[in-house]
Amino acid sequence: MIRLLFIVALGLAYFTGFSQTNPPAKKQPVKTVKPLKPKKQKKGRLVTALDYLKSGKVKNEIDEMDEAMEDFNKAIELDPEYERAYLERGKTYFILQEFENALADFKKTIELSEEKMESARKRGNVKTILEDHKGATKEYNRANLLKPILAEGLYNLGNVKFFMGDKEGCCADLKKSGELGFLKAYSYIKKYCQ
What we know:
The chain has helices at about 1-20, 50-60, 65-80, 85-95, 100-130, 135-165, 165-180, 185-190. By secondary structure, the protein is mainly α. It has a single domain, classed as Tetratricopeptide repeat domain (Serine Threonine Protein Phosphatase 5, Tetratricopeptide repeat). About 30% of the residues are buried.
């Protein structure tokens, strides 16, 4: 028991001596850093082609076709290589039964998607040869992200061709669309191409 009291007393003496030899640290004033504020844009102001695309899609859904068309046109004006904007504008032309304009936009969607896919694949091949596997993976993924746009563009092009009386062209486009993963195409193939 005496031994235990001795150890406790020794421990207390040690900690008490430790706190007396080291003066308490002075409190440093805490510096507050103001976080960077993102640049504010005026409420409702559209800035990028993507902003206009999203706005156009919303307007399309509530049957404001003229306003939607303006937004799609602005998106294309800001980014003439934006395949998704051509696709959405083409869908709007189709709804408005302006089939020639829809046809032109769907063809442009397909052309841009194919070019960008091929370019991304080639960059991926070069990066693979250079043993930049991470970069190659990014390029191949970029190419794969364009497949759904290409598939939907082909599907829509096939529908326009059907309404214009080109059954053979319609079926060819629907088939390619289905092969690229746009499964809705297969129901139309059964309906129109059998």
